[in-house]
Specification:
This protein has about 725 residues and is mainly alpha-helical. It is built from 32 helices and 5 strands.
Length: about 725
Amino acid sequence: ESEDEEEEEEEEEEDAGGAFAVGGRLPEGCGGLLVAPPGGSAHRPPAAAGFIDYLVSSLPDPAAVNAGARLLAAMFVNETMDDMERGDGGGRLAGASKKGINAKTMMGGYARTLMTIAVGLVASDSAARAEHLPKLLVDAPHVPPAATRLLRAMCQLPLPPLPASTANASSKTSSDEGGGGGVASVVDALGFEVADKERVVKWGGRKIPRNAETVTLALSALQTIIDRRPTCRASCLEIALECATHADETIRGKAIRVVSGGLHQLPHLAAGIEAYAAHHLGEAAREGAKELDKARALAAKAAASIAADVKKKKDAEDARLRKAAALKAEAEGRSVEDVEKALKEAKQGKEGKDSEEEAAANAMRAAEEAEARTLRAASAAAIAATSRHLLLFCALCHKKPSLLRPLFQAYADLPPELRPAVVSNASFDGLVRVVGPTSEALVEIIRSPPKGSESLALRAVEVLADVVDAMNRVDEAPALEGGAVPPPPPPKAAPVALVQAAEALSEACGGDIKYVMPLTSSLKKDVVAKSLLPRVVGVDVDAFREVLDRLTATTPAKPLTATEILIALHDVDPVRHGVPLKKIIDACGECFNRPDVFTPEVVAAALQKMVEATPLPLLFMRSVIQAEQAAPSLREFTLGLLRTLTRRQVWKMDGKIWEGFCRCAKRATPRSFPVMIDLPPKALEELLNKFPALREPLRAYASSAAVSPNVPRAIAALLQQEKEKDKPPPP
């Protein structure tokens, strides 16, 4: 037995130096396991290493891949039988048996051969490697720990330390070629050499490429192994999930697509993936708060540094002036008591009190601006760190909307400064669009969101409203036979459940109208005209502008036409609805500022309908004047409105309406003279008292030969009396 042990030690020492030679070359004899008798310890022919090199150089040729698979199968069988004959009972798989294992690497010939082929495929620049590497690892009889470690290195993940028993037995220190001054690196028990400063990983002296193609290759191999090799599933799934929260955005995006689009669809993996994503969802708030504290500390440090520099400069200037004042006092033979006075004189003479205060204010402003800039930059880094933990969960929500509530809760738990991590960085808008307005889970969350996430629920309502509005934006319909254009399809409305959920949220938030405003185009006509518009106008013109955009986004406008919108605005009563008159005027002005929507025909139709209303809208006459200013083509139409108002005895209506009628009649002169003649004497007298300059032109019009026969006697008598009043008194 002692002779056998000595022989084994000699073989181990021979293999130690060449186990991971540059280029992935195997130690002498590894390939010989293909032909060695089971349990035999004969020396392997030196040609084996050359055969492996030739095999690797031929990859990814299909014949070479098949030859490698047969080689690995034979080596696995031989090493396993070797274990069994030595009494291990097969307790250690090939690649972990004692005979043929390098004492420095804890890897047998099978594991080294597999790694040599795998690393050769990874280093290859052939597109076929994307097919052959997953196939190699799936078809191999056994996937050793070194292979999963290789996949971690390809994904640019840190290599965890090996178990103490393994690491202590095989670690060694090396340096770059060229002697002293090289970068220190360590070759671990599985043959991986890591140079920390350069972030370079090598196996067998060959670098593992660090690029996007290598990451894609590794993720493809991981997905295949997880799906088809249950014994390696746990370790490979762990790597894929780590990549899904990787600090590198490119790697993270690729991994999230693999996990959410492929692995999460497997029923036996879904629960574990969701648990991992939920853990990181909770981790996001903690990580974000930590990064935000760092950001604030960094900003405060920057501000303090600037303030210290300002103080240092000020102290240096004061010292210089103090010294100059002392020298001046000494040169002039003045007493020491005069030094302070001289200092003040020198200081005031240089800049004065005002400029000193201005300099201090400028310094303070510079410090505040620097602090704000630093805080913005550091906060952006904190937001990025937070979103890193959120993205996988958001991607899972695309496939499983029932996971949305924890996302809303995570948003509520975040500090306000970090909430853009959900809204912007995590592409929340895209998530809501994919889930859609018919999702029961999303609608229920909008109805009763977690406390603190109401703003996110509002964002969801806005996005869903945009989705519905986009459905109604149709291109110009193709012409039918004869050049006719088919009418546009009826506008689509948001699902009733979504509208009801938004209304419930609005009521829960004290009747805040902002939660319902995005769904304006999906509400009932009476609700918009009699409830929504008065409340929106009462907020501000910006809120009304948003609602107007949504109302007029479809053709025709929905649920109110442009004409109905104008009429509804004029129905808003300052007393009944509690809306200031100025805000109603601003809302009407916003409509007139959109001539492409509120065309002259639309305005005319609205005014024609309002002129017959009882009571007449308070702002009717103001809108008549605005309409004529916006569209001069309506002048004759407005004259017709004045005739209708005369017939309706406008002088008996509200004083403001009568005032507006008088002003409109004055603007329309001389076209409005026939309307004035039709007024009763008392009303005409009141109008002329308001605008005395109209008396003479109106008298001249009424006394003309063509008109005078048709002028009522009372009006003629009134104008004659006015003429007598205008005569100068006799001398």
